[in-house]
Amino acid sequence: MRRGTNLLAVGGFNQSVILDRIRRSPEGLSRVEIAAVTGLSAQTVSNVSRRLLDSGMVREGEKRNVGPGKPRTLLHLDPTGMYAIGVHLDPTVVTYVLLDLSGNVVADHRAPTPTGLPVAGGPPAAATPDEVIAAMAEQVEAILDRSAVPRERVLGVGIAAPGPVDAARGIVLNPPLLEGWMRVPLREALAEATGLPVLLEKDVTAAAVAEIWTTDDRSRLRDNFAFFYYGTGIGMGLALDREVLRGASDNAGDIGHIRVAATGPLCSCGRHGCIGELVVPHYLVDLAITAGLMPAPYEPLGPGAIDSLFSTLAGAAAAGSPAAIAILEDTARHIAGAVVTITNLLDIDQVVFGGPFWRRIAALALPVIAELVNGDPALISPHPIHLSDSTIGEDVAAIGAGCLVLDHTLSPRPSTLLISE
Ligand SMILES: [Zn+2]
Fold it and tell me: Fewest CB within 10 A of the end CB: N or C in the chain?
């Protein structure tokens, strides 16, 4: 259930039903067929089709002869009829994508998350939320300019942000890794700055949305799955029967305090062994420095340094360094522990792995996780757990944020019925 986002419901329930049918029929669909499969009256189908043709979201194709009577004109989705923008706010980098109506990436762009003035002796301070939002608005304009997409063809902007969020109000609450962000009304601020409708979603949920939207093939993406998001922090997006699970406050999927070891760094919760501390890139970099795999830095590590040292660690493991391999194997074991807990809880049969830091360790970590999960005596499921890499790549959360906007327009949901046409 989504609230407070009526702006994007451009045509109401019947329009979503018809658009959804057309979208799922690459060979095209006639008005008569649409009426038959939707149960809507011929008059309603005709009226809505006219509106969709006028809006550019649908185009008329060839005529097809179906028995007696005049040939029927087929309706097709026009991918260039409308667009959506997805933005992923990460503590290190902000990713922008422009999607067409089919969900294809037309343009993308990454920019470092703005930083403020350096603090004496340390890495640059975080920029204020206002500075970050202003930079976001500029980049949204820039991606539209570069791709020459007319503004009136943009349905809206979806933002994927680190949790916790208040999605109903469009507020980023207090993400542990975004310094200075405390109850920031990001949705309204970006809507004001861009003049476009804006949606806000937790990043891990957006990643799960992206998987569902871009993968129809059930052999590649099961109906019940989790998305393990490996970024500056970690989290899980959850989907049951191909619907993402948001929970009471849209913050489902926070796995950070699942304890997967008896020891480990002290967590903000006062305990040791929480996965959110044990597997994150900055901790692995600390371990690699302690193991002598790289020189100790002279100053506290900023996001850029962690990113590059993490690549060094992954490279050392790939080159066969026993110390580096040991660090990543421990990481895989910790992740496997959390995966077993989550799969037991929800009876899902697939976990997809992705996020900005995942690809660098995937080749080593994924087979270890798969073996540990499926061989774990604590695994209750009578079916094997399928573990896979996301096929979407590092932009998965941004693409998911854009898909959310498309989803609002194209997917019929009972909640859309609340909005009058
Ligand atoms: Zn904890």
Answer: N
CB 274 within 8 A of CB 259: yes
Question: What's the CA-to-centroid distance between 268 and ligand 1, angstroms?
Answer: 6
Q: At what angle do helices 129-147 and 186-194 cross, to 10 degrees?
A: 40
Residue ranges of the alpha helices (H) in 148-280?
186-194, 203-214, 275-278
Domain(s) labelled CATH 3.30.420.40 in the chain stretch across 83-208+397-408, 216-390
**Protein residues near ligand 1, an ion, with CB under 5 A:** 257, 267, 269, 274
pLDDT digits (tens, 9 = 90+) for 174-232: 888 788 899 999 999 999 999 999 999 999 999 999 999 888 889 999 999 999 999 98
267 C-alpha vs ligand 1 centroid, how far in Å? Answer: 5
305: how many CB neighbours lie within 10 A of its CB? 15
Give me the CATH code for the 216-390 domain, please: 3.30.420.40
226 torsion bin: left (phi>0), alpha (psi -120 to 50), beta (else): beta
Give the CATH H-level superfamily of domain 83-208+397-408. Answer: ATPase, nucleotide binding domain (3.30.420.40)
Residues of the chain with CATH 1.10.10.10: 6-79
CA of 230 to the centre of ligand 1 (A): 17
DSSP one-letter code for 232: S
SS3 of residue 171 by DSSP: strand
User: 269 CA distance to ligand 1 centroid (A)?
Assistant: 4
